[in-house]
Amino acid sequence: MASPRFRQALWIALGVNAAMFVVEFVAGLAVGSVALWADALDFAGDAANYALSLMVLSWGLLWRARAALLKGVVMTLFGAAVVVRALWAFQHGLVPEPLTMGAVGVLALLANAGVALLLYRFRGGDANMRSVWLCSRNDAIGNLAVILAAAGVFGTGSGLPDLVVALVMSSLALWSGLDIIRHARRDMAHARQGQPAG
């Protein structure tokens, strides 16, 4: 059974991610930033992941592992979708507006740094708890990358830094998704053998 602290942390994380999805999605579309758009979609995915995590807290290890497996697959698909979006933006020569992009990136970083610190103590649990920690960590890293991309766009007048960061974020999503899948499969094997999560 998950602790009340972990449940409360998940509710906070869910609220932050849902709000920042709206902010970054609107801003990303408005300024033409693939990195912001990608980060907004990541926020949406994470909000759904936190909601799913809250739902399975009282379930047994096997079902929690299955939920984590689903999250891992979603993260992997997200990474692939960002690659496709970045290639499309490259073909069309999009150059985002860097000042708004950077300001939204800073706001998102502050929000997610708080969530990552809140969830840090829970990172060593089962695959489901680990996936929650990885989501929050990836958000903070992604926000830093968006800020760097905004600086790069401002300094060069090119959309290339935005695209590079979008591709880096997609690689992070792919790696984390595969890592979650690996841990979830291990937890599923342990659950079938009647062993605790390791």
Shape: elongated
Query: Main beta sheet, described?
Result: none
Count of individual helical segments: 6
Number of strands: 0
> What is the helix content?
over 70%
Computed CA radius of gyration, to the nearest angstrom = 17 Å
Distance between the termini: 16 Å
The assigned structural class equals mainly alpha
State the oligomer.
single chain
If you average the pLDDT, what whole number results? Answer: 81
Please state roughly what percent of the residues sit in beta strands, choosing from under 5%, 5-15%, 15-25%, 25-35%, 35-45% or over 45%: under 5%
Taking pLDDT < 50 over at least 5 consecutive residues as the criterion, the unreliable ranges are: none
Keywords:
mainly alpha; elongated; 198 residues; 6 helices
What does this structure look like?
With 198 residues, the protein is mainly α. Helices cover 85% and strands 0% of the residues. The protein has helices at 4-31, 34-56, 61-92, 98-119, 127-156, 160-192. α4 (98-119) packs antiparallel against α5. The longest helix has 33 residues, at 160-192. It is elongated. The model has no long low-confidence stretch (mean pLDDT 81).
Show the helix and strand layout:
Layout: H1 4-31, H2 34-56, H3 61-92, H4 98-119, H5 127-156, H6 160-192
Summarize the structure.
This protein is mostly helical. Helix content is about 85%, strand content about 0%.
